[in-house]
Specification:
The protein is α/β, with parallel strands linked by helices. It has twelve helices and 14 strands. It has two domains: 51 residues, Orthogonal Bundle (DNA polymerase, domain 1); 296 residues, Alpha-Beta Barrel (TIM Barrel). Strands 1-2-3-6-9-10-11-12-13-14 form a ten-stranded mixed β-sheet, with helices on both faces. It has a two-stranded antiparallel ribbon with strand order 4-5. It binds S-adenosyl-L-homocysteine and iron/sulfur cluster (SF4).
Length: 360
């Protein structure tokens, strides 16, 4: 068993200044971590060897290794990342907007990217439609392991530290079930001399642990939330998301109403559309009623089938009719285009595929 060490990516700049003396060295190291994306101590050229040796006894720089990578034709890149203990999880590099050029071929606006990160290896929530749930729960990710996903993907895509990026906590795991490490990672991302990714560029997606939505709100981190709603009545929602028994739809809606939201922003409700389960206009009607009075935006997601699932992808006609109904009744709504559909885009699918290949 290899020696597992905490990562330097586990710390805020202030914490690093407690660990590394003199403090200007801590600042230099912080720069190496977040501006140069150093992978190991050897990368840190202007740091004295003795200090690096001392630190390397207790810490590792970047705890992740890229174990596999799938590149989609639409620019989506899905990464399988290996942790120090050999466990694996996923992060996805999503191209949201292409580079804009003027008539002379000069760049007017650079392409925009979002990184989808994992917060746990596996998940305890056990949603019946989700591939991550099939493998059960292994462990929480540390703050450093969450932070390292963004550093690793930015480095791999040669994305400079000062270029803007959005983060969505929508990879493997339930972020609010790992609240302490999640909020630490949010703080580290926000560091001005680090990656400087503000709260408004970070979106926490949750299956709806209402008490933890309140806790996150009370911390006033300025982050957005996305609620994985998926159903409008408790019976179906409990079938899809078993812990809906403890945190029912009403408790989630109430928690959302208490959540501090930037007045210019909206709460995103994700609605996974499954054929003959929740794709009818009766459900659309109930959804409109449920979200009445909330500054909401609905993101309709096509269910992405995988071998062995009992559920089907809805038809394009039903999806469009559902969206049209919402829009006609005043709800802001988008249909999530299936980014990376050719590379098994939904969470957990790359991990499953790679392990399947390994054991085949
Ligand atoms: N645990 C959190 C965040 C990770 S899941 C949550 O549930 O919100 C991220 C998103 O992937 C969720 O909205 C989930 O509904 C979606 N998802 C899971 N399995 C999917 C599948 N087979 N097809 C499409 N989306 C899926
Ligand atoms: Fe966990 Fe989210 Fe998958 Fe549900 S959808 S099992 S909460 S990762």
């Amino acid at each position: 068993m290899t020696d597992i060490k905490p990562s330097l990516l586990d710390f805020t700049q202030k914490e690093l200044m407690q660990i590394v003396k003199p403090s200007f060295r801590a600042k230099q190291i912080f720069g190496w971590l977040y501006h140069q994306y150093a992978e190991n101590f050897d990368d840190m050229k202007n740091i004295p060897k003795s200090l690096k040796e001392e630190l390397s006894k207790k810490f590792i720089v970047n705890p992740l290794k890229i174990a596999n990578k799938e590149i989609s034709t639409d620019g989506t890149i899905k990464y399988l990342l290996e942790l120090q203990d050999g466990k694996t999880m996923e992060a996805v590099w999503l191209k949201m907007k292409n580079t804009q050029l003027d008539d002379n071929g000069e760049v007017i606006q650079e392409a925009k990217y979002t990184i989808c990160v994992s917060t746990q290896v596996g998940c305890k929530v056990g949603c019946t439609f989700c591939l991550t749930a099939k493998g059960g729960f292994t462990r929480d990710l540390t703050a450093g392991e969450i932070v390292a996903q963004v550093v690793t993907l930015k480095r791999d895509n040669d994305h400079k530290h000062n270029r803007k990026i959005n983060i969505v906590y929508m990879g493997m795991g339930e972020p609010l079930d790992n609240l302490e490490n999640l909020t630490k990672a949010i703080e580290i991302f926000k560091e001005e001399e680090g990656l400087c990714i503000g709260g408004k560029r970070q979106t926490v997606s949750t299956s709806g642990l209402s008490n933890k939505i309140d806790k996150l709100g009370e911390m006033y981190l300025g982050v957005h939330i996305a609620i994985s709603l998926h159903a409008v009545d408790d019976e179906l929602r409990t079938e899809l998301i078993p812990m809906n028994k403890a945190h029912n739809i009403n408790s989630i809606i109430e928690a959302v109403k208490r959540f501090p939201i930037d007045t210019r922003k909206r709460v995103m409700f994700e609605y996974l559309v499954i054929k003959n389960k929740n794709d009818d206009l009766g459900s659309a009607k109930k959804l409109v009623k449920l979200l009445h009075g909330i500054k909401a935006k609905v993101n309709l997601i096509y269910f992405n089938p995988y071998p062995g699932t009992p559920y089907d992808r809805p038809s394009k006609e039903d999806m469009t009719a559902f969206a049209d109904y919402l829009i006609k009744h005043g709800l802001l709504c988008t249909i999530r285009d299936s980014k990376g559909i050719d590379i098994s885009a939904a969470c957990g699918q790359l991990k499953e595929k790679t392990q399947g290949e390994l054991t085949a």
